[in-house]
Write a structure and sequence with these properties.
Elements (H helix, E strand, L loop, with lengths): L7 E2 L13 H13 L2 H4 L6 E4 L7 H6 L16 E5 L2 E11 L2 E10 L4
Antiparallel strand pairs: 1-5, 2-3, 3-4, 4-5
Length: about 110
Amino acid sequence: MDKDTPSLKPEAVGAADTPNDTPDETVASERLIAMLDPEVLGNVMVEVSATLGRGQLTMHRLASMVPGELVTLDTPLNGMVDLSLNATLVARGEIVAVGDQFGVRVTEILARKK
């Protein structure tokens, strides 16, 4: 994991403040957490995306691809999937079958830096 990737740990998201938080930032953080009450935000829609993996290919290969060709990704078959809300990484999980569709079973939730 690179330095720009948030730390993920298998624990609930907490209200822990970072040591560098000013009192104003701490109050703002606590207000934000209070606003995340499911009773208040229960009907707010957010974009959810699951990233299976990444790969690289040349523009030449991309331009010459035909239906049925495969693109190899960097994630192993049983690898973790990144789960994002509005393009922000919030969790990781494993792919599962949900009827005739795919789903993600959450196994790790983004933890705030302490």
